[in-house]
Input
Amino acid sequence: MHEMSLAEGIRQIVEDAGRSQGFRKVRTVVLEIGQLASVEPEALSFCFELVMQGGIAEGARLQIEAVPGCGWCPACAATVAINTLYDPCPRCGAYQVQATGGTEMRVRELEIE
Amino acid sequence: MCNVCGCGAGETRIEGQALDKLDEHARGHKWVPAATRGHVHHHEDGTWHSHDHAPAQESLHYGQGPAGADVPGMSQARMVKIEQDILAKNDGYAAGNRGWLQDRGILALNLVSSPGSGKTSLLVRTIEALQARVPVAVIEGDQQTSFDAERIRATGAPALQINTGKGCHLDARMVGHALEKMVPPDNSLLLIENVGNLVCPAAFDLGEAAKVVVLSVTEGEDKPLKYPDMFAAASLMLINKIDLLPYLSFDLDKTIEFALRVNPRLQVIQVSATTGAGFDAWLDWIDARLAALRVARDETISTLRARVKALEAALDAARAAKA
Output
């Protein structure tokens, strides 16, 4: 969706971390992106490249770790795997699954010099 | 199959055709900037992953920084844990807005929809119905023009237009600035009309009490499945323009069923901003939330008063003991 805004958010986090922890060059940015977070990794990679220019993460490698989607099925009283927000429960087939995981968009770690 | 890494076919489709069939996947290897040096694979089961192709000889080397010279064995790099949400900054501003609004008993609703669902007409009618008993203020979000704010101001309600320029959504910082500028009265209703877009506004918390998604019957009944994030983020779905149902082949039950698949807790009210049909239910929904907010605020105030009283008593006792 708004991958450009996300890339700007990443830049802010990276620059803040650089200032507070005293590093000036980032080699790799490791993200955790949930499968249900509606982020297009290709679009994000493209925006990342553009937005990081002129900052401490210019030219940095972007590594995106996918977090699988999961949700709570009240009928089964169990956590089940889902690939979209509108998936039925894989156990009972009911459409009542509330997403509980796989919606995250996080900067997990940075490889710095 | 990807001819560089041998991984499975892509799932991104254009007109039903897989992106890699359109040569996009192969192009991806040339197109992915040197600094990224990798690409993403979508799999049939809906999962995806990204990985590198090193050395990326086919890359276009624009914007390649010093970090591109990655020599094994000579690395002095180290890893730093960050563990921060990408939208943390926005969420921080949103929390600020939410606290500010709650302290003043202001009920903020974030109205989201596609362009043309009738949000502004809905707002105008809502304001006309409510403003005799509840002060109503409006924040209007559009990429350009202040047409919508002018329509709202014609009702007598204060309205502030935010133009996002090229932006596709309002964010919490914009709304925070708007609140500073317009300062809605205590115990009022604040209606935030987001940019007409069913995608991006879903992810950006503005500090509202609830998101209300407006879907009109002139749109497709499959919209909740096409744009699930918005319906998942909303608390209420208003199905607008129901006066047009006799002229359309819109399947109302199917729409509701699809929306509940995405969000089983979603409430649904059918309305017509033109005829006023269903407005009683919509206004009741707002009133119930305003009342709940008032109760919560009164409780906070009485708790604080009780604490002040207890502290004063303790102070008096200390003074008496000293004297």
Observations:
- The longest helix of chain A spans residues 3-21.
- The radius of gyration of chain A is 17 Å.
- Strands of chain A lie at 26-34, 61-67, 70-73, 78-81, 98-101, 105-112.
